[in-house]
Amino acid sequence: MAHQTASGVTLGISAAAPATHDITGFDALTFTSVGEITNVGEFGKEWQLVTHNPLATRGTKKGKGSFNNGTLSPSLALDPDDAGQAAMETALESDDPVYIAVTLQDGTIYYLVGLVMSFKPSIGGVDDVVTATTSIEIMPDEILKKAAA
């Protein structure tokens, strides 16, 4: 498969920590699906640029400094009865990380560790669905990718 669409993608959440921070540890977790997701968003490592300008050479030398795994910003239709959305709201009130599984259409799974920083209902106009925007700060733990079977 050269490409795939986002249709069928799921986002799962677990408050339980894996026994080991590897594919086997994450595979052993039970993830609660977050319902009514309309957009998962982007995530991934991004490095800070570090520069140095020696006077003698006048050129800018470049290197990598710290990195940030980004912010996952899922959008969803608000469902007060959805267990996954409830788990996100519970995590919002905690300083503890949650464990996330993003499963693609082809079965590829990305495992992430993050802090739920926001869960904001959004009420629009008469012809709009009541939605919520969320924010999950991805921790510096390595983002794990499990290839489709």
Topology overview:
Elements: E1 10-14, H1 23-27, E2 32-33, E3 37-39, E4 46-52, E5 61-68, E6 71-72, E7 75-77, H2 83-92, E8 98-103, E9 109-122, E10 131-138, E11 144-146
Antiparallel strand pairs: 1-2, 1-8, 3-7, 4-5, 6-10, 7-10, 8-9, 9-10, 9-11
Describe what this molecule looks like in 3D:
The mean pLDDT is 96. By secondary structure, the chain is mostly beta strands. It has 2 helices and 11 strands, in the order E-H-E-E-E-E-E-E-H-E-E-E-E. Strand 9 and strand 10 (131-138) form a beta hairpin. The chain has one domain: Factor Xa Inhibitor (Irregular), CATH 4.10.410. The strands form 2 sheets. Strands 1, 2, 3, 6, 7, 8, 9, 10 and 11 form a 9-stranded antiparallel beta sheet that branches. The protein is globular.
Strand content: 35-45%
Number of domains: 1
What is the chain-wise order of helices and strands? EHEEEEEEHEEEE
CATH T-level fold name: Factor Xa Inhibitor
Count of strand segments = 11
Compact summary:
By secondary structure, the chain is mostly beta strands.
Which key features would you list for this structure?
149 residues; mainly beta; Factor Xa Inhibitor; nine-stranded antiparallel β-sheet; two-stranded antiparallel ribbon; 11 strands; 10% helix; 41% strand; globular
